[in-house]
Task: inverse folding
């Protein structure tokens, strides 16, 4: 009985203190998407935090411009270091198949910032979506 009471008190303390322990973390990524030698225009790019114990958090969503460039930025308060994923949804290389190819890349942890006024920018470079990426899947409801 004492164990249950101690466990209950511990859960209550963690519940009340966790908002105070959360640290806002910021991430910003820029890059360009191409398909073979042409810019990928109006392509969906999303920034997500990959969670181990609960549902993932979408941090931001943008579309590439007429030159294939994207700039995406997001933030989240968390006790743990964010595990940020950049997701691209494309038909590059397979226009006739159902759904879009979903490509997920991990943003290096070293590019997370704790200060909004000094956000580190990760340069994702030029990515040719004609490549087949490891772990790539299909997504019909992105």
Result:
């Amino acid at each position: 009985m004492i164990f249950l009471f101690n466990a209950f008190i511990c859960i209550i303390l963690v519940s009340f203190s966790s908002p105070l322990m959360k640290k806002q973390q910021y991430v910003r990524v820029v890059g360009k998407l191409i398909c073979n030698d042409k810019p990928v225009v109006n392509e969906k790019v999303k920034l997500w935090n990959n969670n181990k114990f609960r549902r993932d958090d979408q941090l931001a969503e943008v579309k590439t411009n007429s030159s294939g460039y994207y700039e995406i930025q997001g933030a989240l308060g968390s006790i743990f270091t964010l595990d940020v994923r950049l997701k691209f949804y494309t038909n590059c290389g397979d226009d006739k198949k159902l759904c879009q190819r979903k490509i997920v890349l991990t943003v290096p942890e070293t590019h997370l910032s704790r200060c909004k006024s000094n956000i580190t920018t990760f340069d994702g470079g030029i990515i040719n979506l004609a490549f087949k990426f490891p772990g790539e899947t299909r997504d019909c409801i992105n």
Remarks:
- The beta strands are 23-35, 38-39, 44-49, 57-63, 69-78, 84-90, 100-106, 121-128, 137-139.
- The chain is about 15% helix and 45% strand.
- Helices lie at 2-21.
